């Protein structure tokens, strides 16, 4: 029905622009919905891999590994995960608020505009949330049904945008945080450098941490 409205409005620049802008937003939402639906196994795998990676990191350096700590046992894992988790929460909150405010303003603005024109005793067509072909406006019940459908479609489209963008932003934040953690953990391979004498326990520590760095690097790139 939006495509029909676009064709009808081809000689009306203002209406044409409104149809194009809304149709593009809905089209992107439809593309995101297709990605979430048809590639849900890939999204679930990404989520499971991230959870397993963090759980593995939170149990790193088991007690059965005998090596010299060189007084560098600060738990940078928890600190790093907490840092990018807080960034994720703040980003999600910001995106959700932006989309929700936009949704409320967009849904309410046609009716506010209609009320303003009617208060000035000016003729104004019945308000619609979405610029779409509305052949049932001459019937009040048909008009109400169309507005209800437009309301559901608008809210659903915004929800799809929120879910996809939050998941995408969260994945990028996770990857950046993991690479930052990998860098910090690589710096700990040789310890603080306070003890320079040869020690088998310190060699075991370095060898163990090299294996962990390689393991996490492979997981992140995969």
Automatic annotation (TrEMBL):
Biological source species: Leptidea sinapis
Transmembrane stretches, start-end: 98-117, 142-164
Domain of life, source organism: Eukaryota
Pfam family, one: 7tm_6
GO terms (BP aspect): signal transduction
InterPro entries: 7tm6_olfct_rcpt (IPR004117)
GO MF terms held by the record: odorant binding; olfactory receptor activity
UniProt keywords, alphabetically: Cell membrane, Membrane, Olfaction, Receptor, Sensory transduction, Transducer, Transmembrane, Transmembrane helix
Name of the featured protein: Odorant receptor
Transmembrane is among the record's keywords: yes
A Gene Ontology cellular-component term: plasma membrane
This protein's record includes keyword Heme: no
Protein localization: Cell membrane
Membrane topology listed for this record: Multi-pass membrane protein
């Amino acid at each position: 029905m939006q495509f029909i409205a676009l064709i009808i409005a081809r000689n009306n620049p203002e209406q044409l622009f409104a149809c194009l802008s809304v149709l593009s937003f809905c089209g992107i939402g439809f593309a995101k919905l297709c990605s979430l639906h048809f590639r849900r196994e890939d999204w679930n795998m990404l989520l499971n891999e991230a959870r397993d990676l963090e759980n593995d990191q939170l149990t790193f350096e088991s007690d059965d590994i005998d090596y010299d700590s060189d007084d560098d046992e600060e738990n940078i894992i928890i600190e790093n995960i907490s840092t990018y988790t807080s960034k994720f929460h703040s980003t999600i909150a910001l995106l959700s608020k932006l989309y929700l405010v936009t949704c409320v303003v967009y849904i309410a603005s046609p009716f506010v505009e209609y009320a303003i024109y009617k208060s000035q005793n000016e003729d104004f067509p019945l308000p619609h949330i979405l610029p779409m072909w509305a052949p049932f406006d001459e019937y009040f019940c048909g008009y109400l049904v169309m507005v209800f459908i437009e309301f559901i479609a608008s809210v659903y489209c915004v929800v799809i945008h929120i879910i996809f963008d939050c998941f995408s932003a969260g994945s990028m934040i996770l990857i950046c945080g993991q690479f930052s953690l990998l860098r910090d953990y690589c710096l700990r391979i040789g310890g603080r450098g306070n003890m320079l004498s040869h020690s088998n326990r310190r060699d075991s520590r370095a060898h163990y941490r090299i294996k962990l760095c390689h393991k996490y690097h492979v997981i992140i790139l995969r």
